[in-house]
C-alpha cells in the first residue's frame, strides 16, 4: 500500500485469481495420499442472480457452454434457502482437471459479462471411504480457499477443516482469516 492510500485510509481491493482453480487437481492428489479423500466429481459455482434478460442470457450461455457438447457432464441450476443460485456440474470423479476447467469457465463468463459482483464461491467436494465429506471452497472476492466440512444440521467438523488447511497450505492460497470460512449449509454435493 502506498503513502497516498495510507493517508486516505484506503487499501487496494484484493484481486481474485481464478487460475488458482487449476491448482485443485494437484491438491486432490495430496488429499488422497495424505488424508484418504477423493473428489466426488461434482463441482459448483455459487452466485447471486441478477434481474433482467442480460443475466438470464448469460446463465443460459454458461449452461450451454458446459453441458451441451457430446459427452459433456450434466449441468443443473438450483437455488438455495438463502436465495443464492448454484450452477452444479456432475462430472467424472477421475477428471478433476476437466471439472476445474468448467468451474473456471462459469466464473470467467459471469465476470466478463459484468456479473462478477454476484459471485460468491466455487466448491469442489471430496469424500473418504468412511463417509466424511468436505467442500474445498474458493472465495471469489478473496482469491483464497478454505475447507468446509458439515457433519449434520448446522454442525461442522472443524478438526477436519483445520487438517485439510494444514495439508494444503503449501499448494493452495488458503484463507488465513477463519472468520471468512463461511458455513455453506446445504451446498450441492455435500
From TrEMBL:
InterPro entries: PspAB-like. It comes from the Bacteria. Pfam families: PspAB. This is Uncharacterized protein. It comes from Nocardioides exalbidus.
Amino acid at each position: 500500500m502506498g503513502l497516498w492510500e495510507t493517508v486516505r485510509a484506503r487499501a487496494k481491493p484484493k484481486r481474485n485469481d481464478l487460475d488458482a482453480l487449476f491448482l485443485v487437481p494437484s491438491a486432490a492428489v495430496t488429499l488422497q495420499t495424505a488424508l484418504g479423500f477423493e473428489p466426488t466429481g461434482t463441482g459448483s459455482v455459487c452466485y447471486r442472480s441478477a434481474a433482467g434478460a442480460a443475466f438470464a442470457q448469460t446463465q443460459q450461455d454458461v449452461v450451454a457452454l458446459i453441458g451441451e457438447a457430446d459427452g459433456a457432464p450434466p449441468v443443473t441450476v438450483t437455488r438455495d434457502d438463502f436465495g443464492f443460485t448454484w450452477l452444479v456440474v456432475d462430472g467424472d470423479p477421475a477428471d478433476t482437471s476437466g471439472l476445474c476447467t468448467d468451474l473456471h469457465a462459469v466464473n470467467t463468463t459471469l465476470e466478463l459479462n459484468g456479473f462478477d459482483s454476484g459471485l460468491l464461491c466455487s466448491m469442489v467436494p471430496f469424500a473418504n471411504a468412511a463417509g466424511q465429506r468436505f467442500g474445498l471452497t474458493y472465495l471469489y472476492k478473496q482469491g483464497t480457499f478454505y475447507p468446509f466440512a458439515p457433519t449434520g444440521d448446522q454442525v461442522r467438523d472443524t478438526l477436519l477443516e483445520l487438517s485439510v488447511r494444514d495439508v494444503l497450505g503449501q499448494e493452495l492460497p488458503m484463507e488465513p482469516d477463519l472468520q471468512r470460512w463461511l458455513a455453506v449449509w446445504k451446498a450441492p454435493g455435500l
